[in-house]
Amino acid sequence: MNKKLRLIVICGPTATGKTLKSIEIAKEIDGEVISADSRQIYKHLNIGTAKITKDEMEGIPHHMLDIVDPVDNFSVVEYKQMVQKIIDDIHDRGKIPIIVGGTGMYIDAVIYNRTFPEVPANQELRATLEKVSTQELVEKLTELDSVRTETIDKNNPVRLIRAIEIAKTLGKVPPLSALGTKLAESPYDLEIHYMDLPDDELKQKIHTRNVSRLNNGLIEEVEILHSKHSLSWERMNALGLEYRYVSQFVQGEIETKEKLIEILDQKTWQYVKRQRTWFKKYLK
Questions:
Q1: Are 230 and 70 in contact (CB under 8 A)?
Q2: Residue 76: is it exposed, middle or buried by C-beta count within 10 angstroms (0-12/13-18/19+)?
Q3: 257 with 163, same domain?
Q4: What are the helix (H) ranges across the chain?
Q5: Are residues 109 and 22 in the same domain?
Q6: pLDDT tens, position by position, 26-76
Q7: Which residues contact 63 (CB under 8 A, 6 or more apart)?
Q8: What letter does residue 192 receive in the DSSP assignment?
Q9: Are 17 and 196 in contact (CB under 8 A)?
Q10: Same domain as 247, residue 190
């Protein structure tokens, strides 16, 4: 029987210090970092995603950053296929792979070798769903699969429509989202580090980070993404959080920076709660 390959996972909510921890561990064990962030895979999305800089890497090789143009979609299936090859390559070179990030679906796909049923796009259904409000999409998904509703971004109509599409075809979204249930055995020798902070401390850290980003180029980054890199406002909305609400600010839909910070703090905290819900199964 072949020995399982070692794989370290550093996961948890946003703003809990996962990046610094990954560098620390990588130095200790001669490791290489694989990002598990669904937006850091995109080029030009730097400030809003807190993407690690060359200097911050401290010479540690990083993978799955800046690999896709942001106008294009990138699926969890593509992520899984690419990362499994990277893991093999890192081991072949005598080093240890470290997956780091807060996108639970990406991490699950790799560490538990999840399979994904082929559900083709239903253009007629999509055309119908695109006409209804985001709240109505949430209600429709809840009727079909309340478990998936717990972790999905409820402000992202693209993801909501896809989840409804899958649930209508299969009866529910596949057990990737079956929170709290026993996970399948991993093909890897896993070492999982879950990172979190007390609520008050994390809320303050999120607020400080949001203010800093807005004062240090995030608004300009959004404007450049739209004007230079041809990202539509609809695409910016689909990218979520910072890009969604800063683009609304740029368009005048959010009137003041103070209101923008308030919204970002609130929506980021909602995201933290979804992340915690997802990762709680790793702690069992």
A1: no
A2: middle
A3: no
A4: 18-29, 54-57, 76-92, 104-111, 123-129, 134-144, 146-151, 157-170, 199-215, 218-227, 233-239, 241-250, 257-279
A5: yes
A6: 999 999 999 999 999 999 999 999 999 999 999 999 999 999 999 998 888
A7: 32, 33, 34, 35, 83, 86
A8: E
A9: no
A10: no
Q: Are residues 18 and 158 in the same domain?
A: no
Q: Write the pLDDT tens digit of every residue in 129-151.
A: 988 898 999 999 999 888 888 87
Element (DSSP H or E) covering residue 10: strand 5-11
Q: Which two tokens mark 13?
A: 């909510």
pTM: 0.84
What is the domain extent for residue 30?
A: 5-113+185-196
CATH number for position 46: 3.40.50.300
Question: Is residue 280 a part of any domain in this protein?
Answer: no
CA 245 to CA 116: how far, in whole Å? 31
Tell me which residue has tokens 């560490």: 111
Question: Can you give the CATH number for the domain in which 239 is found?
Answer: 1.10.287
Q: Which of 196, 228, 260 is the last residue of a domain?
A: 196
